[in-house]
Amino acid sequence: xxxxxxxxxxxxxxxxxxxxxxxxxxxxxxxxxxxxxxxxxxxxxxxxxxxxxxxxxxxxxxxxxxxxxxxxxxxxxxxxxxxxxxxxxxxxxxxxxxxxxxxxxxxxxxxxxxxxxxxxxxxxxxxxxxxxxxxxxxxxxxxxxxxxxxxxxxxxxxxxxxxxxxxxxxxxxxxxxxxxxxxxxxxxxxxxxxxxxxxxxxxxxxxxxxxxxxxxxx
Length: 218
Ligand code: E4P
Hints:
Strand order of the largest sheet: 1-2-3-4-5-6-7-8
Number of helices: 11
Number of strands: 8
Order of helices and strands: EHEHHEHEHEHEHHEHEHH
Largest sheet: 8 strands, parallel, barrel
Shape: globular
Structural class: alpha/beta
Distance between the termini: 45 Å
Helix content: 40-55%
Bound molecules: erythose-4-phosphate
Strand content: 15-25%
Radius of gyration: 19 Å
């Protein structure tokens, strides 16, 4: 399973990358604004900085919602760096744009996916990644993980190559359950990724080993 970090914060990206397990980055317009990155030039410069930090796919989201606008914006984003993946919303024009980019060999990430039907369309259009938002479904008392399960089944039935990028991951159990189901990628904040490291018995065991060593070697 690939690990992407879902942030535009360069410090967090570097920290996850330094762990040696990072496979890519996802961003969205809200995450950019959260870091104070505004204005087209600053945003594109920031994408390039992210690409230079990590060795993997970096999703950059289009703002346009019409086909011509998404194509123009996506082509500019894709030209920024070979690691850029054009992130396109799951709307009618978005499906057309994904098909366009797929035919041109440009990688896409179909975002804001909340149903199996949407995921099926994204795969048919040739999306490289589909991003079902688990956490936001959980927020409205719907089982986000059940959606990952459904999409896995459908993609397996037909051998679709579109990678399931489980997004809106909030905590460790989301990651573990995605791994059990067989999601191809998860994207979440640094806290969720680092959460995998933690177990109280590890801390207690290490403290005991170190204190026993000190006793025996002093
Ligand atoms: C996915 O690519 C999105 O950026 C993201 O995972 C949204 O997550 P959120 O629901 O935590 O905002």
